[in-house]
Amino acid sequence: MPHLSDIPVCVDLNDNKESNLAIAKTVLNEIRALIAQLINSGKTGAIDLRQRPRMRAETYQYLKDALSSGEVTAVVDAAVKVEVRETRYPGVWWLTHLNEQGAIVTEIIEITEIPEILKPHIADMRAGLKRFDQILADFTSHEESPTTLN
Length: 150
Description:
It holds the Pfam family HupH_C. This protein has about 150 residues and is α+β, with helices and mostly antiparallel strands. The protein has helices at about 15-40, 55-65, 120-145, and strands at about 45-50, 75, 80-85, 90-100, 105-110.
């Protein structure tokens, strides 16, 4: 009786390369359509790369090479750390969400003027305004007394 180990297996690396390129090309075509949509209608879009079937490390690398780096990078250090990188295409942003251990949780390509995560929330702005008012109040109270600010 033959065993599974007796069956010859040949891995076609070219097929994998072509498959990775095809997947990358599909994503790049989607990005192109979303850029046109943003320009024509102002509607933003996003592609969650971790939700893509068959997305391999090689495909990610093709995309990273094709999109390259632009002029802007930022790190949001909140409940989840998010690295934001503009690509060399204005309006196309690569966002990498990391867990507490630094492992990638998700990667999103966002097509927008400014990624949502970089925009301040109105509640945060109100809290900041209150802190700002307190600083101004401290200045005012110190101007009225001969002591200096600490």
